[in-house]
Each structure stands twice: as structure tokens, then as C-alpha cells.
Amino acid sequence: MNLTRLVYYSQRNPSEKLDTADLIATCRRNNARLNLTGMLHYNGDHFIQVIEGGRVEVSALYHAIARDPRHSNIILLSCEDVRERIFPDWSMGLHQGMSDRTSAIFLRYFSTDVVNPEIVSVDSLLDVLQDLSAELGAS
Question: Nearest to residue 97, comparing CAs of 46, 32, 31?
């Protein structure tokens, strides 16, 4: 079975209620059952997420996210078959906020700590997310 990695960016729809603790608990429960892994960065305004797993499961989850009213202006940045997972220990990791440390990590890979989804390098974005996940530990 092919292993797929999908990366997307979206803005938070401020008119919809968002409880990140509940969201992550649901993601972890459902993703573990489907052998999906990944990482979510949420800075209060936008989401950047990596989802890894079987092609069918990743596609189904992405389509569900695209229909979720908490997201707006969703942009698919990358979807490709890969040899191995970047986040094998995370049913779904969550990094929230934009602390000085987070900003420094973004500035290591980009000229600014504001992500422009139209020109971002997905490889650099994956590096950012790996660095953020290393600070969190595994879950």
C-alpha cells in the first residue's frame, strides 16, 4: 500500500467556534484507528497541517477538512507518495501560537515568520513543522 503525505494551509473561519483541545482529541482518536499521522500548527489565524497515511485515508480526511466550516481559503500545498513518515509517533501533533521561539524557527527557513501559501517551499515548511514537533515531544 502506498504511503501518502498531504500538506495544506487554511485560514480559520472566525465565525465558527474552535476548541483546539477537543479538535486534537478527536483527531488523535480517529487518526490512530486509521493509521494516520501528522502535525498541525495553529497560530490563532491559520492552520498548516501535514497528514500521512494510506492514500485513501489521507484523501478522505482532506476532503472532510475542506468541508469543515472552521476552515476557509484552504490551499492544497502538496500531496505525494513518500517512502516514510516524518511524524511516525504522532497520531496528530499540535503546536499552537507564535512565540518568539516559534518565530525564530520560521525565520531559520523563511525570510519572514508570516507564511505566504502561494510561494512557500513545502520542503522548508516540513522542516519548520519537524522543528516545532521536536519541541513538543511525541503523542
Answer: 46
Taking a C-beta distance cutoff of 8 angstroms, is the pair 85, 35 a contact? no
Residue 137's pLDDT band (boundaries 50, 70, 90)? Answer: low
Mean pLDDT of 49-71: 95
Instruction: Return d(Cα 80, Cα 61) in angstroms, integer.
Output: 15
User: Between β-strands 37-42 and 93-96, what pairing exists: parallel, antiparallel or unpaired?
Assistant: parallel
Q: Angle, nearest 10°, between helix axes 55-67 and 20-34?
A: 160
User: What span, in angstroms and rounded, lies between the C-alpha atoms of 21 and 94?
Assistant: 9
Question: What domains are there in the chain, each with its CATH number?
Answer: 3-136 (3.30.70.100)
Q: What is the helix (H) or strand (E) element at residue 105, kind and residue range? A: helix 100-109
Segment (H or E) for 49? strand 46-54
DSSP 98: -
